[in-house]
Amino acid sequence: MPEGRSSLSSRMAALWGRAEATLTKGLLLAVFFVGLVAQFAKPVGDALEGKTYIGGALLSIVGYVLYAEVLRLNAARDTEREELRQLHEAVRRLSGEIQELTARLGPQAGDGATMDLLIEECAQAVLRGGETHLSGMCFTGETFVDPLRRVLEDLPPDPSRSVSVRILVPDFTRPTGVPGLVRNVDGKLADAPGFRRHLTGKIAGYAQDLRTTRGRMLNKNQGTLSVEFRAVHMSPFLKLYAIGNDVVYEGIYDALEVRPDEYGASVPAPRPGHDDGQLLDLIGRGSLLTRWSRYDGEPAGGLVRRRCDFFDTLWDAAKRLEPEPAPSGSGA
């Protein structure tokens, strides 16, 4: 029964709302026509002369109509505000659910990842705008710097964007064992100065590419880019990449390739009887990475902090490399 009375009340309210509007319009039209007739028909004008109560009543009706319209407009505005608030609340709730779903579907702490996923996450970071800090410990930067450069050059305009890129590479100006030469005479490792010179040229080429990208970003109003390459004397077995202090990707160069030393001609001729040997090179393309995020709790958060501290310590101890164009044929 209460539901029946509520439904009846709603129908009566709707009926009265329509009837009220019709009656008000009819009454105002009647007043208009009476005034118009009184203006031109003297008997009607004389009959209405001095009828102050009628005029007051008509003014009261007009005032009531205006007051009701103001109330209706205020109610409509309040309703609009409430609907807008509910819409914002729904959008906020939906955004939270989407972020939670994305986190569940995305890579979790300790999951295997690829360079493509790393570059995709770097792209998402720089697309958000603001300040973005990217760091990489690389062999030459081939699998990280070159894809990242393409991401930066395709960014939409955003003058407030600021991207910082730090690349740490081995110091190939000093002798190394790996990469190096495997001597034919005894199978032991030796330095490969020609190959080191080639790698130094490639690194200089990638640094120059990013320097060019910095100018292009400024010209296209995409934001500012700071680039710095540093070198430290180390064996390039570790891959380490960081997005700010939040996410770390790590891996190793887990493949080796032995091939003829095609770079030996760029160094002085060996002594008579010297055994040139075969070139031993590290292969990192296709290596699996492990992703860690501080948002995944512990122990992932602690590992991210340790890896970032590890990189920063080596970075502070490394020497700065001034980018130079890669020599012809370096493959940069």
Describe what this molecule looks like in 3D:
The chain has 332 residues and is α+β, with helices and mostly antiparallel strands. It has two domains: 2-104; 109-321, Endonuclease, Chain A, CATH 3.30.870.10. Helices cover 51% and strands 19% of the residues. It has seven helices and twelve strands. It has helices spanning 2-40, 42-48, 52-105, 115-127, 142-153, 193-219, 300-317, and strands spanning 112-113, 131-137, 162-170, 180-182, 189-190, 224-232, 238-243, 247-252, 255-260, 278-283, 289-293, 319-321. The strands form two sheets. An eight-stranded mixed sheet has the order 1-11-8-7-2-3-6-12, with helices on both faces. Strands 5-4-10-9 form a four-stranded antiparallel sheet, with helices on one face. A hairpin with a 3-residue loop joins β7 (238-243) and β8. α1 crosses α2, α4 (115-127) packs parallel to α5 and α5 (142-153) packs parallel to α6. Residues 269-274 and 325-332 have low confidence and may be disordered.
Order of helices and strands: HHHEHEHEEEHEEEEEEHE
Write down the domain tally: 2
Structural class assignment: alpha+beta
CATH topology of the largest domain: Endonuclease, Chain A
The side-by-side strand order for the widest beta sheet comes to 1-11-8-7-2-3-6-12
Average of the residue pLDDT scores: 79
How far do the termini sit from each other?
A: 84 Å
The CATH C-level class name of the largest domain: Alpha Beta
Number of helices: 7
Q: Approximately what portion of the residues adopt beta-strand conformation?
A: 15-25%
Largest sheet: 8 strands, mixed
Helix content: 40-55%
Please tell me how large the radius of gyration is.
39 Å
Q: What is the global morphology?
A: rod-shaped
Tell me how many strands there are.
12
Q: Tell me the name of the CATH homologous superfamily of the largest domain.
A: Endonuclease Chain A
Query: Which runs of at least 5 residues are low in confidence (pLDDT < 50)?
Result: 269-274, 325-332
* Known CATH architecture of the largest domain: 2-Layer Sandwich
